[in-house]
């Protein structure tokens, strides 16, 4: 959801069907940044605190990749950037039953950031337990699975679709189910808008954070303010780094990008360097369409730049790089 970028985009939610998987990416106009009239965040909620990849728990080097909307686009990304150490996958509802067999979540046979959606009341009722238990029980081991429930819930909460309290309770229910799978590579990941951290947002990002040790990792969707500003990554990503460290949680960047082509390659290199030095666990470029104009990398300068970032990540993490190799992609 490109809520910091989306002045150029009208409409609320665009659903992209890709290889049987619904990719829900809401690109809202800039007015969508603001909480609805009368909405006040709840009180601060403090926490108590391509190839199969085996990562050390400390993971000093971030995994750099991209969002994928279909297996065809995954193959294209692999041909352009090389072996992707991590991919970002979206489900508009609950995860598909084939997520970890022939589904897109398993297609790259790598670390993955995978999000799904369901109403908190339905989650808490237990109606979705069977599907979720299957998702967690069948998840592979050997690489990180950053699973996220209802990424970017802020606008939904502001619109009154559900409350922050209900959202937090649903998260606790989901994490209890995940822990029963006894898979150390499953990492509960709360994905929020970096926009929340702006002084004019009217939001308290901690109001979405469940208490205790429910959340392992924070994911941030961070975009420069404005349409095509090639803003310094420290400016639009720095607050997310500081917030994550203040909460004592692992973190990464699950979306970022711009549509402009002029100067984008150099900007991407700066973003990659910043993420690498920030302490983040991952950085996945939003390389999909929509919005309009598309953020997908189509110009050679941008493609080469992100290839270098991905190659560096491959090297740092001991992953073989081969742009021509799509054999690891699960068909």
Notes on the structure:
Strand 8 (about 215-220), helix 6 (about 235-245) and strand 9 form a beta-alpha-beta unit. The protein starts with 13 loop residues before the first strand and ends in a 15-residue tail after the last helix. Helix content is about 30%, strand content about 15%. The chain has an eight-stranded parallel sheet. The longest helix is centred in the last third of the chain and has 17 residues, at about 300-315. The chain is of the alpha/beta class. It is built from eight helices and ten strands. It has helices spanning about 70-80, 120-125, 130-135, 155-160, 165-180, 235-245, 265-280, 300-315; strands at about 15-20, 20-25, 65, 85-90, 110-115, 145-150, 185-195, 215-220, 250-255, 280-285.
Pick out its properties.
8 helices; alpha/beta; 16% strand
Question: Could you provide a short overview of the structure?
Answer:
The chain is an alpha/beta fold and 331 residues long.
Map the helices and strands.
Elements: E1 14-18, E2 21-25, E3 63-67, H1 71-81, E4 86-90, E5 111-116, H2 120-125, H3 129-137, E6 145-149, H4 154-158, H5 164-179, E7 186-193, E8 217-221, H6 233-247, E9 250-255, H7 264-278, E10 282-285, H8 300-316
Parallel strand pairs: 3-4, 3-10, 4-5, 5-6, 6-7, 7-8, 8-9
Antiparallel strand pairs: 1-2
Helix pairs in contact: 3-5, 6-7, 7-8
Distance, first to last CA? 28 Å
Helix content: 25-40%
What does the largest sheet look like?
8 strands, parallel
Percent range for β-strand residues = 15-25%
Rg from alpha-carbon coordinates: 18 Å
Q: Which sequence of strands runs across the widest sheet?
A: 9-8-7-6-5-4-3-10
- Estimate the global geometry from the Cα principal axes: globular
Order of helices and strands: EEEHEEHHEHHEEHEHEH
- Poorly predicted regions are 2-58
